[in-house]
Write a structure and sequence with these properties.
The protein is mainly α and about 475 residues long. The chain contains 20 helices and 12 strands. The strands form 5 sheets. Strands 1-2-3 form a 3-stranded parallel sheet.
Length: about 475
């Protein structure tokens, strides 16, 4: 654990939905802050006024709150500090660390093309740094609004000891003097981001590796300001199963989509933590408290992680089974209420059914299709029925099961199981052969909750009626 007081930040740009990659970045910052007893600062980098929206901020806050990622300071917004950025840029000009640049977009493009022809680095030549006072006045009189560029020393290298990637080097000659304040007086990302980190005394910048290339210029801002530099850690990319950058083509990548499908926040947090980090080579299922206790930057992998939705679904099932029966039933009822499911109105029935589905569900959204037959009339999957009709043992299985169940006096799962297993002994049919048609008869599907528990919940009359109804199909279809 570091000796310094850890201060980290999560600074999303509210120009779109908060997706899996950003949620993983937020989580790693939160885990590191909580593991070290540090502070997490939340801010919204909303200087792109054309694309930033209040809706995106609200969505990000909903996602963080649902995941249980709380923050200690903020949220702040960069648009609240616009005057500060402009004043700081002007102060750097006064100190000789920055200068106004009057170049037009057309002039910059022409210069870039010429440098490309000459095989020179595609950086700004710095010509406005050498303007005379008379040349500046002339540009002002022409109505040119200057941007402000920070002077970047082209000598040597910029080197960091990245806490995840190790030593990373950049050739300073490839950086060039860069714009920190645009001609419309708005700050660039390369300027506002480190200024905010300086103001918040951030000690560790943990962010995606796509931002690694911005590090030399941001460190130049720290040095121009005479500020203490943070430790950097650049997190691995998240890829889809095809090993390409995660995108919408891979399916659900918005965290809220998983919430809406009945995933537990604990499961999503558990899975996101494992995309690029591990505790050891065998531990997968972890609670939030265990993740906080075990998290370390040293075990974050520099190689890209793969987002495997099937593994997330499996992990969600494991977390559903970690719940106490009462908590599981409550989570299930809450989900049905939020989704407006017609089953939600039958709260007592939901509580009765919950214990027999807890071992089977991987998403709460599967409940209605999986156990709906226990709430109303059965709807048959015709493929499942066809399998029964085509099975030569099915008529005898259904008739034997019906006869055995008619003799059950105490209608409970244990007595039902005893009767059906006795029918297997009497007929010589294997349990799989006898139970299968009964399962299809009562549920309409080949996969359903526990057979004996389902028969108990359906009750004697309804169970026998459904078995008889499927048996009659042999007369019409057999």
């Amino acid at each position: 654990m570091p000796s310094e007081a850890v201060r980290v930040r999560f600074p999303p740009s509210p120009t779109g939905l908060l997706h899996v990659g950003s949620a993983r970045t937020a989580l790693y910052n939160w885990l590191y802050a909580r593991h070290t007893g540090g502070v997490l600062v939340l801010r919204f980098e909303d200087t792109d006024r054309a694309r930033s929206t209040p809706e995106a901020i609200d969505q990000a806050l909903r996602v963080l709150e649902w995941l249980g990622i709380d923050w200690d300071e903020g949220p702040t917004r960069q648009t609240e500090r616009m005057d500060h950025y402009a004043a700081t840029a002007e102060r750097l000009v006064a100190d000789g660390r920055a200068y106004p640049c009057y170049c037009t977009a057309e002039e910059l493009e022409a210069e870039r093309s010429e440098r490309q022809k000459q095989g020179l680095p595609l950086t700004y030549s710095g010509r406005c740094r050498r303007l005379t006072e008379a040349e500046r006045r002339k540009f002002e009189e022409e109505g040119r609004k200057p941007a402000i560029r920070l002077i970047f020393d082209p000598a040597g290298e910029t080197v960091i000891e990245d806490v995840i990637r190790g030593v990373v080097r950049w050739d300073n000659a490839l950086q060039g003097d860069f714009i920190i304040l645009r001609s419309d007086r708005t700050p660039t990302y390369q300027f506002a981001n480190p200024l905010d980190d300086i103001a918040a005394s951030i000690t560790h910048v943990l962010r995606g590796e796509d931002l690694l290339s911005s590090t030399p210029r941001q460190l130049a801002v720290y040095r121009a300001m005479g500020a203490t530099e943070p430790r950097f850690g650049h997190l691995p990319m998240i890829l889809g199963p095809d090993k390409k950058k995660l995108s919408k083509r891979h399916g659900a990548v918005s965290v809220e989509e998983f919430r809406d499908r009945g995933y537990l926040p604990a499961a999503v947090v558990n899975y996101l933590a494992l995309i690029g980090w591990s505790f050891d080579d065998r531990t997968t299922v972890m609670t939030r408290e265990e993740l906080v206790e075990r998290f370390s930057l040293e075990r974050v992998n520099a190689s890209p992680g793969v987002f495997d939705e099937a593994k997330l679904q499996w992990l969600n099932g494991e977390h559903l089974r970690l719940l106490t029966p009462g908590r599981f039933a409550a989570e299930l009822q809450r989900y049905l209420d939020l989704e407006g499911s017609p089953l939600a109105a039958q709260a007592e029935r939901v509580a009765e059914v919950a214990p027999i589905v807890q071992e089977k569900l991987r998403e709460l959204s599967q409940f209605e299709a999986f156990a709906g037959f226990l709430f109303g009339p059965v709807e048959y999957d015709e493929e499942a029925v066809r399998r029964v009709v085509d099975d030569p043992d099915a008529p005898r299985a259904l008739e034997s099961a019906r006869a055995a169940l008619e003799g059950v006096t105490d209608w409970n799962a244990a007595s039902i199981e005893e009767a059906l297993r006795a029918a297997c002994e009497e007929t010589g049919l294997k349990p799989r052969v006898l139970f299968g048609p009964v399962r299809v008869a009562i549920s309409g599907h080949t996969v359903a909750p526990g057979l004996f528990e389902s028969l108990e919940l359906l009750g004697r009359d309804e169970s026998l009626a459904r078995i008889a109804a499927l048996g009659r199909r042999f007369v019409t279809e057999g």
